[in-house]
Specification:
Elements (H helix, E strand, L loop, with lengths): L7 H15 L4 E4 H8 L8 E6 L5 H10 L2 E3 L4 H8 L1 E6 L5 E7 L2 H9 L1 E5 L2 E5 L2 H11 L2 H14 L5 H11 L8 H11 L1
Parallel strand pairs: 2-5
Antiparallel strand pairs: 1-2, 3-4, 4-5, 6-7
Helix pairs in contact: 1-3, 2-6, 6-7, 6-8, 8-9
């Protein structure tokens, strides 16, 4: 797998994986790093991690951050995670940013269990499947996310499990503001 030309990124991903797994924190990479695997490669240097954990696991995440050389960005991480369910951090040596998203939903647990493993510096790093990346991108719905979703479908669409995607798109359509997910998913499926 090719990552952007930042020599620190593969080492960070490997170190982060070891640190999170040592604390029993189920997770997967989402966002731009997963797009590199399933879509059209683009320059991205941030790392987005979704955790199958609630904020009570913050002490473990903070220890994993320290082990991986990451420094939390909020002055009060406890309050910030309580309010946002996100912990932004920065890699001290490289300046690379990592966002940890805490989630306890049935969807995230299933998505993490389905994740694929990509070997980076000898470490099997969990990455969202094409289907789950597509769902994350459709849920976010920003223009960059829609472009990423289109690139995932162009590259991976013919082999995707569209029944799985449709099931979760319909479930997410129950969330206010996400009612259009099934229609957006169907438009993309027609392009595959």
């Amino acid at each position: 797998m090719a990552f952007p030309p930042r020599p620190e990124l593969p080492a960070l991903l490997a170190s982060l994986t070891r640190a999170l797994e040592a604390r029993g924190l189920p997770f997967m990479l989402i966002g731009g790093q997963a797009v590199l695997v399933h879509g059209t490669p683009r320059l991205t240097e941030d790392v987005d991690v979704t955790l199958a954990a609630d904020p009570s696991r913050l002490p473990d995440v903070l220890t994993a951050c320290a082990d991986a050389g990451l420094t939390p960005l909020p002055e009060d991480p406890v309050a910030f995670v309580h309010d946002t369910f996100v912990l932004p951090a920065r890699h001290a040596a490289s300046g690379l940013r990592t966002d940890f998203v805490f989630s306890t939903t049935a969807y995230e647990r299933e998505a993490i269990a389905r994740s694929i493993r990509i070997v980076v510096e000898g470490v099997a790093v969990p990455v969202a499947t094409a289907e789950d990346l597509l769902l994350h991108k459709l849920f976010a719905g920003r223009p960059r996310d829609i472009e990423d979703a289109e690139s995932v479908v162009r590259r991976s669409g013919p082999s995707m499990d569209w029944v799985y995607v449709e099931r979760w798109a319909r479930t997410f359509a129950e969330v206010p503001g996400r009612e259009e997910m099934p229609a957006a998913m169907e438009r993309l499926r027609r392009c595959s």
